[in-house]
Specification:
heterotrimer, A mainly alpha, B alpha+beta, C alpha+beta, A: mainly alpha, MetI-like fold, disordered N terminus, C: alpha+beta, Rossmann fold, OB fold (Dihydrolipoamide Acetyltransferase, E2P), 2 domains, six-stranded mixed β-sheet, 8 helices, 32% strand, MetI-like (chain A), transmembrane (chain A), transport (chain A)
Chain lengths: 299, 362, 333
């Protein structure tokens, strides 16, 4: 019998590669080209003000100077710390709230559909608009202060957005308002996916609701929980639009996060070589985080 | 203590009545099969016994204790799900010990009882294996063991063999039956497969359309079905049922079966009972009770012959007037044309054509 | 017209041999059944016939023509899927016409073919209905009509009735058998239910791990199984396979097989067998016996009265015994 390759035998890898090659090239170009361009620029002192197009940035070659600079950039480090703080406060709160709400929504109750629609609405709001809404809410004559004055029975006029600490709290409140619904949706999908039989089996074996939740529901949702946390961590790290509209990073640099900082030095200082270096460094950090999360998930 | 009494049990889902007044007494240590086609109310009944559903009316008693209002976690029943509902994110040991751990039993007790149960079921070697990816017979044993370790007085099984390969089902039936002998608990077994019910159960409760049709030992429901539904549902194939009219003929009460001919005179007691019945009847007899005889009064053309190993099934006639006859494969059988036959006299059953109820000779 | 021949066909997937040197011929108009446990190679055989897989070795012929490397489209073999795959939004008529309309066959020709197939399968009166309005049996007829309308050389069915209730399965298989007789055409059928296989097949092939162990009519396979494996696959309850000693044994036999219905028992207080279990099934009774070290099952007609613990005389006619060598093969004679 012949062992020469026939068209049918080629089916496996060869044909598949040929068919997907154009798409693969495109994807490679789209993702790889900007990355390489950025890497190139990050090794130079190039700026658009230099009057030269970016391919000639090598004339401003400074090797790792940008990377050394960012190590001693206090403003960068405090922005990074602030971003981490937002992440560390918002994500767990969003997770807790989302999980609690999702647990409520697994069972039927009257008005569930309406409540559901209302609940996921914040997610649909354009972040810039959400920022504007919270900007209004936290004005010193705004509704938040009005509500507080009802409780305290005396006029309250806290200047939320002008106080470094309070401004950060207001920003976090906006983020939690906007992104708890996403957490809720993902976790609800996970909860609904826990087989009913398993819950019933555990109940019949005498497990209490709390025990069922801890021994059946949570372990079965592990994958989805990790995904939800990873998505929100990455997103929280990039927090920008809501915040920028509410405080513009101010007062001073008190609410400046990484994204806001990068935005400012990109559009105001125009030191693009340095910006590229920061962006690449952050990409590296985030990638490591993602890999770590994936590893945890695989376990 | 572990007898089950269902008293006037009714279950409605909105407009739909899934179960219409069910009364059933299941004795302590009995293996009771709830048998019927899908939608007959057997699973609803089972779920109410387990406490997963609340009856719309009626009471459920375990022994003398009314458990109607008791939530499902506190009835102390063992339950084996159709798909076994094994906790696949745990090991075999964690599955077996789950109930005891949730009850907060001391670790030493959990370990010893789990170990004993694993030993009994032959799972000891698998204890630290993850439960995901085990074969179906291991899963069945694990599902039973996980409940049995709690020592429930009552065991409920919801079609546990319906996901099992046909070839493997016989093995599983035998295994299940020997497990029941081992544990000696009251067992309620839901199934749509009459063979499972016949081979395993002490008694069978046949259900249809939310109504309990008949309760009896396998042989009682096979030999004396109370109506045409039970007659057709029990047996493989089910009972032959032919519409006919009673008439006096050849010196006795006979049944005119239209195109098939006129039956032989009914045996004495049955004729006596039929004398006061309406003329329109259903004439029934088991496929295993057909006798071939060129001089027999009934005849139908042969359509298909199935030979299934030890048995051969002749399919005679078509539609309303069709008869199946089962023979042992060795016997000489006709290959085509008109087949003349009659049922053995003692095997004839009559049913009221209007109500489907059995007309019984005493 | 279709005669399908496999000449020494093998198919491997990596290290697994899915089909190992299969040689057989499915005759024209035959109801041919592949039977074996899961993963025994049944589905791979179907895919080889359809042209979805190319054999690593051997040849496949349809009506004498080598189609080993011919693609599925050129083979003209139809497939009826397990779930029937009828289009729910189309009437039965449109479902049946679909393959022809797709191929751009002239309207007059479509109508003629449709009528021909509908008459053969007795579905003329339900053609205007949607699948949702049809009974299970009717749906099956429509699905088969759709397979046959383009005049295939043969059609294949992969376990089409396994999803039905036990009761419906019994009716469906008889229906299927009649349908194949009426419609003609070679039908190749795959099932893992031995009762179904024996009921419908003209001839069947028994598979074990990619190897065809025996081909023949169901009666041949049941009465003269070529190996102890085949013997145990067919029949319910399964054949008793016991070490020699209990019955007259031929030299060289390592195992003696006797079907449960071939055992004869009579009450005898001095008998060598003891009843350990009685399963009355109505028309039949299954006894479980212990005789020496062996456990045996006996299938009896009717409802004889036996009780556990009772002792029985046990024997079997010599011509009903099956003798197998140590390697599982049947001893000649």
């Amino acid at each position: 019998m012949t062992s020469a390759p026939t068209p049918e035998k080629d089916d496996g890898a060869g044909l598949g590669l040929r068919l997907t090659l154009p798409a693969q090239v495109l994807v490679l170009f789209i993702s790889l080209f900007p990355l390489l361009m950025q890497l190139y620029i990050s090794l130079t002192d190039w700026s658009p003000l230099s009057g030269m197009a970016w391919p000639r940035a090598w004339e401003f070659w400074n090797t790792f100077a940008n990377y050394l600079d960012l190590v001693s950039d206090d403003r960068l480090w405090s922005a990074l710390g602030r971003t981490a703080l937002v992440m560390a406060v918002c994500v767990p709160l969003e997770f807790g709230l989302g999980l609690a709400l999702a647990t409520l929504f697994v069972d039927d109750f009257p008005g569930k559909r309406v409540a559901y629609s209302i609940l996921i609405m914040p997610m649909m709001v354009v972040p810039a608009v959400a920022g504007y809404m919270f900007f209004m809410l936290f004005q010193s004559g705004g509704p938040v202060n009005d509500i507080l004055s009802w409780f305290t029975a005396e006029p309250v006029s806290i200047a939320w957005l002008s106080d470094p600490t309070l401004a950060l709290i207001a920003v976090m409140a906006a983020d939690i308002w906007q992104w708890t619904p996403l957490m809720f949706l993902i976790l609800l999908a996970g909860l609904v996916g826990v087989p009913d039989d398993q819950i019933k089996a555990a109940t019949l074996l005498g497990a209490s609701p709390v025990q069922r939740f801890l021994t059946i529901v949570i372990p079965r949702m592990k994958t989805i929980i990790v995904i939800a946390l990873a998505i929100r961590c990455i997103e929280a790290f990039k927090i920008f639009d809501t915040l920028y509209i509410m405080t513009g990073g101010g007062p001073g640099v008190a609410t400046e996060t990484i994204s806001v900082y990068i935005y400012k030095i990109t559009t105001q200082d125009l030191i693009w070589g340095y910006v590229a270096a920061i962006a690449l460094a952050i990409l590296l950090v985030l990638s490591l985080l993602a890999v770590w999360a994936m590893r945890r998930m695989a376990k | 203590m572990s007898a089950i009494h269902l008293q006037g049990l009714v279950k409605r889902f909105g407009q739909f009545t899934a179960l219409k007044t069910m009364d059933l007494a299941i004795a302590d240590g009995e293996f009771m099969a709830l048998l019927g086609p899908s939608g007959c109310g057997k699973s609803t009944t089972m779920n109410m016994i387990a406490g997963m559903e609340r009856p719309s009316e009626g009471r459920i008693l375990f022994g003398n204790q009314d458990v109607t209002g008791l939530p499902m976690g506190r009835r102390g029943v063992g339950f084996v799900f159709q798909n076994y509902a094994i906790f696949t994110h745990m090991t075999v040991r964690q599955n077996l010990s789950y109930g005891l751990r949730m009850m907060g039993r001391p670790a030493s007790e959990v370990a010893s009882r789990t170990g004993t149960m694993a030993e009994m079921l032959g799972l000891t070697a698998l204890l630290d294996r993850p439960a995901a990816g085990l074969s179906v017979n291991i899963l069945q044993r694990l599902a039973i063991g996980r409940s049995a370790v709690m020592e429930p007085a009552i065991f409920l099984l919801d079609e546990p063999l319906s996901n099992v390969d046909a070839a493997f089902r016989a093995v599983m039936r035998t295994e299940l039956k020997s497990l029941q002998r081992q544990f000696r608990q009251t067992m309620v077994y839901v199934t749509h497969d009459q063979l499972e019910a016949m081979t395993m159960a002490d008694r069978i409760a046949v259900m249809d359309h939310g109504v309990l049709q008949q309760v009896g030992t396998p042989l009682e429901v096979y030999n004396d079905p109370v109506n045409t539904f039970v007659a057709r549902f029990i047996g493989a194939p089910g009972m032959n049922l032919l519409p006919g009219r009673l008439l006096q003929h050849a010196g006795g009460l006979c049944v005119d079966l239209g195109p098939l001919g006129i039956s032989a005179p009914l045996p004495g007691p049955l004729a006596a009972a039929a004398a006061s019945a309406p003329a329109e009847v259903i004439y029934g007899f088991r496929p295993e009770e057909v006798q071939l005889d060129p001089a027999a009064p009934l005849g139908l053309p042969l359509t298909v012959t199935e030979r299934i190993g030890a048995r051969s099934i002749l399919h005679l006639g078509e539609g309303e007037t069709s008869v199946r006859a089962v023979f042992q494969s060795g016997e000489p059988l006709p290959e085509a044309g008109l087949v003349r036959f009659q049922p053995a006299a003692a095997a004839v059953r009559l049913f009221d054509a209007a109500t489907g109820r059995a007309i019984r000779g005493v | 017209m279709a005669e399908i021949t496999f000449d020494n066909v093998s198919k491997r997937f990596g290290a697994t041999v899915a089909v190992n040197a299969a040689s057989f011929t499915v005759r024209d108009n035959e109801f041919f059944c592949f039977f074996g446990p899961p993963l025994s190679g049944k589905t791979t055989l179907l895919r080889l016939i359809l042209g979805l897989e190319v054999p690593d070795e051997g040849r496949i012929l349809i009506d004498g023509k080598d189609v080993t490397r011919t693609g599925p489209a050129a083979r003209n073999i139809a497939m009826v899927f397990q779930n029937l795959a009828l289009f729910p939004h189309m009437t039965a008529r449109d479902n049946v016409r679909f393959p022809l309309v797709e191929r751009g066959v002239p309207a007059a020709q479509i109508t003629a073919r449709l009528e021909e197939v509908a008459a053969k399968l007795h579905i003329g009166h339900i053609l205007h209905k949607h699948p949702g309005q049809l009974s299970g049996g009717e749906r099956q007829r429509v699905a088969i009509a759709r397979a046959l309308v383009r005049d295939p050389a043969a059609y294949l069915m992969d376990d089409p009735i396994s999803a039905l209730d036990a009761r419906l399965r019994e009716e469906a298989r008889v229906e299927l058998k009649r349908m194949q007789r009426e419609a003609g055409r070679t039908l190749i059928y795959v099932t893992h239910d031995q009762e179904e296989a024996m009921s419908v097949a003209d001839r069947m092939a028994i598979l074990e791990q990619g190897v065809i162990r025996q081909i023949g009519t169901p009666a041949e396979l049941y009465d003269r199984p070529a190996t102890s494996y085949v013997a145990q696959l067919l029949g319910a309850p399964v054949m008793n396979l016991i070490p020699p000693g209990l019955f007259a044994t031929r030299p060289g036999a390592a195992l003696v097989g006797v079907r449960p219905e071939d055992l004869r028992v009579t009450p005898d207080p001095a008998g060598r067998a003891e009843v350990t279990g009685v399963e009355p099934l109505g028309g039949y009774t299954v006894l479980t016996l212990r005789a020496g070290e062996s456990q045996l099952r006996v299938l009896l007609r009717g409802q004889p009265a036996f009780a556990p613990g009772q002792r029985l005389h046990l024997d079997a006619a010599e011509e009903r015994l099956h003798h197998f060598a140590a390697d599982g093969h049947r001893l000649a004679g």
